[in-house]
Design goal:
The chain is of the alpha+beta class and 233 residues long. The protein has a single domain (13-232), classed as Alpha-Beta Complex (Lambda Exonuclease, Chain A), CATH 3.90.320. Helices cover 40% and strands 21% of the residues. It has helices spanning 33-42, 53-60, 69-91, 108-128, 175-192, 219-232; strands at 13-16, 21-24, 43-44, 47-48, 51-52, 132-140, 148-157, 162-167, 197-203, 211-213. Strand 8 (162-167), helix 5 (175-192) and strand 9 form a beta-alpha-beta unit. Helix 2 crosses helix 5 (175-192) and helix 2 (53-60) packs across helix 6. It is globular and about 40 Å long.
């Protein structure tokens, strides 16, 4: 099987769910020299002072962020617990399938959603003959004129094509916003590697279509995103 490398920063940066920023965790970890210099120059009191994908898309789609703080924090907590189970299942790949375990999670709803995502991922593996996967990555856009940082839930290849995936658990219908997130995640991958993303998918068991290919963004949306990136970089 071909070996692929991704400059994952999850051992260097950690996402703070209260501040919605990335904290500096361990700069001693082996990191690309150029990226390490970006982190050093962009850090302020242990916090990475560059734009996040969430900040960019919330400015382009401001209506998405109009919920009270308690609702947002509850959703963040639920999402983290669901993704913990999904990421563990991905680590526990056995042959051609991801192996789901409940771990110490007690909430039946969270278990149900996570298990459903893993089920759909296993079908995805089979359909696209996936050979290698990456999950739970943190990357910085490798462009000093357009700096931003973000998480990537799922990246996979069959040796010919590359696929990007995002895990959601909301009936909000914000698929255009989710597509914009994937568009920015695509930039993260392609600026740090020679890999070109062919298809992007939203995995959301609460939607009518549980696996949805990301929407094409309009020229206006692409313009707004690029302007927001420039303003915040």
């Amino acid at each position: 099987m071909a070996k692929y490398q991704i400059s994952d920063l999850s051992q260097v940066l950690s996402y703070n769910e209260k501040t919605f920023k990335y904290d500096l965790a361990n700069l001693d970890w082996e990191v690309d020299y150029h990226i390490k210099q970006i982190i050093k120059k962009s850090s302020n009191q242990g916090v990475l002072a560059i734009a996040t994908i969430s900040e960019i898309v919330n400015e382009v789609y401001p209506f998405v962020d109009k919920q009270n703080t308690e609702v947002i924090q509850n959703l963040i907590n639920r999402t983290r617990r669901i993704k913990t189970l999904v990421f563990q299942a991905i680590k526990n790949r056995r042959g051609a399938e991801f192996y789901f375990e409940e771990l110490d999670e007690k909430d039946k709803f969270i278990i149900k959603i996570a298990k459903s995502i893993v089920h759909d991922l296993n079908k995805f593996l089979y359909k696209y003959e996936i050979k290698q996967v990456f999950s739970n990555l943190i990357l910085i856009n490798n462009d000093v004129n357009n700096l931003f940082v973000g998480n990537i839930d799922f990246l996979a290849t069959n040796g010919k094509e590359w696929f990007l995936g995002s895990f959601k658990n909301s009936r909000s219908g914000f698929n255009q916003k989710y597509s914009a997130e994937l568009y920015l995640q695509k930039q993260l991958i392609e600026s740090n590697t020679n890999y070109k993303i062919n298809k992007m998918f939203i995995f959301n068991p609460l939607e009518q279509r549980v696996v949805l290919e990301a929407n094409m963004l309009s020229n206006y949306e692409l313009f707004k995103i690029s302007q927001t990136e420039i303003k915040k970089s």
